[in-house]
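Here is the promised in-class demo. Please do not try to memorize the tokens; focus on the logic of going from shape to residues.
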């Protein structure tokens, strides 16, 4: 099989949206070995503390999120990259009145999302 036959193009405008928490919109793209998720958080929204086995890398594209990671708070601002090891408890809440947008990768591929 040629490489071009394994390539898939996604447009965020066509990726289904779900709302895992009030004010939080999630769009998910799964590849063979990894998952990419785009989150959009409305002002005032919170993603409760949780943990999952996958390693997570979060890139903050706009807005500010206060992350609670293993009991410690850190602020993620546009351009920041946060690496969260698998199994570590974490959550996030929007800081300020601006919508927040992030891209998150999960390795290995995520089979179940909170």
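The designed amino acids, position by position:
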């Amino acid at each position: 099989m040629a490489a071009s036959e394994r390539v898939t193009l996604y447009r965020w405008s066509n990726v289904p949206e779900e709302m895992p928490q009030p004010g939080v919109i999630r769009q998910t793209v799964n590849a063979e070995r990894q998952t990419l998720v785009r989150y959009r958080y409305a002002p005032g929204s919170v993603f409760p503390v949780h943990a999952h086995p996958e390693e997570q890398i979060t890139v903050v594209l706009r807005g500010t999120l206060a992350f609670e990671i293993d009991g410690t708070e850190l602020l993620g601002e546009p351009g920041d990259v946060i690496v969260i090891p698998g199994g570590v408890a974490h959550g996030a809440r929007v800081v300020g009145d601006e919508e927040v947008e992030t891209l998150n990768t999960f390795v290995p591929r995520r089979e179940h999302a909170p």
